């Protein structure tokens, strides 16, 4: 099939929920613990830094998506506005980083939903079910994500409510707060917390399936981002005031611990169920983005063209979805994924460096925001990239270079 196209089936509401499904995932239930381990109560400052950088990225992504509303997100923007190598860097970083992220989300889901001895088989089964759902159509993905996001937001409302009106609210934690983290520690926490903000990119990768994308995508990105910031700030403040910095850093299930300490032990099981649902929702949305970016890269020849196929009935990039799903299942079953979040953050931050540079290159009539926004976003991403753990930086750099080498070889052979 020549120049296969996806179908525009999504409105603003569906696009918002897909973005929220990506952000309201494993991050909000898990990311505050490692951030507290690094910076203590300084994670609140890190959260502000991550939010500011993410806001710049969201603004750049929104104006780019309005100009180039096709599948692929920043991969497409980089190719069109800067050059093929920049586009490849963005696409490769996104596909590899988010593949690792998807595996981590699947394992996190299984940790909440199954006994320890069954966690990896259950994680693999979750991946298989998500792949099937995505292959059946983006409207099914959006519908499933909408249900999960609503459930997760209700659970998070219970967590925040326990810290406001719970019988033991405010009785612990406050005295142990202290903002004595070093600037480097605060930046490291910002790099980790940025992982939780990256979901709005999924809206841009669906640009070929959104109705009236020039208006819908910027609006959906803005709404999803604002909701996520409000929720994260509320959850972070309540968690710190309830558990204290040390308690938050040492808790493996911090939000369940919050409701227990605040005198609502009945809600702990509900929070665990919400965490599992959040991870599953994020997995759905992440797979939608990975598959469509791989599809876009195959359409231009940066990945094997066999992946450049749209299902004749369901109008989805099913071959790309199936391949990514197979890789994630292998990772889930065989690989130690404890460093996956750091590696994924490196790839996502590099992806947004390209997005900001592409937005900076837009002509005056195409830009909705000052160029300073894109410049600040690019610099912020670079800074956060290189404050991540050294292993994540090293592995991420090697994988990016391997991808560049593979593309160079393929181009040479094609000549």
UniProtKB/TrEMBL annotation:
<feature type="transmembrane region" description="Helical">
    <location>
        <begin position="264"/>
        <end position="290"/>
    </location>
</feature>
<feature type="transmembrane region" description="Helical">
    <location>
        <begin position="394"/>
        <end position="411"/>
    </location>
</feature>
<feature type="transmembrane region" description="Helical">
    <location>
        <begin position="318"/>
        <end position="335"/>
    </location>
</feature>
<keyword id="KW-0472">Membrane</keyword>
<keyword id="KW-0812">Transmembrane</keyword>
<feature type="transmembrane region" description="Helical">
    <location>
        <begin position="223"/>
        <end position="244"/>
    </location>
</feature>
<dbReference type="InterPro" id="IPR002293">
    <property type="entry name" value="AA/rel_permease1"/>
</dbReference>
<feature type="transmembrane region" description="Helical">
    <location>
        <begin position="341"/>
        <end position="360"/>
    </location>
</feature>
<feature type="transmembrane region" description="Helical">
    <location>
        <begin position="12"/>
        <end position="32"/>
    </location>
</feature>
<protein>
    <submittedName>
        <fullName>Amino acid/polyamine/organocation transporter, APC superfamily</fullName>
    </submittedName>
</protein>
<feature type="transmembrane region" description="Helical">
    <location>
        <begin position="185"/>
        <end position="203"/>
    </location>
</feature>
<feature type="transmembrane region" description="Helical">
    <location>
        <begin position="144"/>
        <end position="165"/>
    </location>
</feature>
<feature type="transmembrane region" description="Helical">
    <location>
        <begin position="372"/>
        <end position="388"/>
    </location>
</feature>
<feature type="transmembrane region" description="Helical">
    <location>
        <begin position="118"/>
        <end position="137"/>
    </location>
</feature>
<keyword id="KW-1003">Cell membrane</keyword>
<feature type="transmembrane region" description="Helical">
    <location>
        <begin position="85"/>
        <end position="112"/>
    </location>
</feature>
<dbReference type="InterPro" id="IPR050367">
    <property type="entry name" value="APC_superfamily"/>
</dbReference>
<keyword id="KW-1133">Transmembrane helix</keyword>
<dbReference type="Pfam" id="PF13520">
    <property type="entry name" value="AA_permease_2"/>
</dbReference>
<feature type="transmembrane region" description="Helical">
    <location>
        <begin position="38"/>
        <end position="59"/>
    </location>
</feature>
């Amino acid at each position: 099939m020549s120049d296969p196209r996806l179908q525009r089936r999504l409105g603003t509401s569906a696009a918002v929920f897909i973005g929220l499904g990506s952000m309201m995932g494993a991050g909000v239930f898990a990311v505050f613990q490692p951030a507290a381990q690094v910076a203590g109560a300084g994670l609140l400052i890190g959260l502000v830094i991550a939010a500011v950088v993410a806001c710049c990225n969201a603004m750049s992504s929104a104006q780019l998506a309005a100009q180039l509303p096709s599948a692929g997100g920043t991969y497409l923007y980089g190719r069109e506005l800067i050059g093929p190598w920049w586009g490849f860097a963005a696409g490769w970083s996104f596909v590899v980083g988010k593949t690792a992220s998807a595996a981590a989300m699947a394992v996190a889901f299984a940790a909440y939903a199954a006994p320890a001895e069954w966690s990896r088989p259950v994680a693999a089964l979750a991946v298989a079910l998500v792949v099937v759902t995505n292959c059946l159509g983006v409207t099914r993905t959006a519908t499933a994500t909408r249900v999960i996001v609503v459930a997760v937001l209700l659970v998070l409302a219970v967590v925040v409510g326990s810290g406001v009106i719970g019988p033991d609210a405010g009785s612990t934690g406050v005295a142990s707060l202290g903002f004595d983290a070093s600037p480097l520690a605060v930046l490291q926490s910002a790099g980790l917390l940025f992982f939780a903000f990256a979901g709005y990119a999924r809206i841009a990768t669906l640009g070929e399936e959104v109705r009236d994308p020039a208006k819908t995508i910027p609006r959906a990105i803005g709404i999803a981002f604002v909701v996520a910031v409000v929720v994260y700030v509320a959850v972070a403040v309540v968690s710190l005031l309830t558990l204290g910095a040390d308690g938050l850093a040492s808790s493996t299930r911090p939000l369940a611990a919050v409701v227990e300490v605040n005198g609502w032990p009945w809600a702990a099981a509900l929070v665990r169920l919400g965490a599992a649902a959040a991870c599953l929702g994020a997995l759905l949305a992440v797979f939608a983005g990975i598959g469509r970016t791989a599809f876009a890269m195959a359409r231009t020849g940066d990945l094997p063209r066999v992946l450049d196929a749209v299902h004749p009935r369901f109008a989805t990039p099913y071959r790309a979805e199936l391949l990514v799903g197979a890789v994630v299942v292998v990772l889930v079953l065989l690989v130690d994924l404890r460093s996956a979040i750091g590696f994924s953050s490196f790839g996502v931050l590099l992806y947004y460096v390209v997005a900001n540079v592409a937005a900076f290159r837009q002509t005056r009539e195409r830009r909705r925001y000052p160029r300073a926004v894109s410049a600040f976003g690019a610099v912020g991403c670079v800074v956060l990239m290189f404050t991540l753990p050294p292993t994540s930086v090293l592995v991420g750099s090697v994988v990016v270079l391997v991808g560049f080498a593979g593309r160079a070889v393929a181009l040479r052979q094609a000549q």
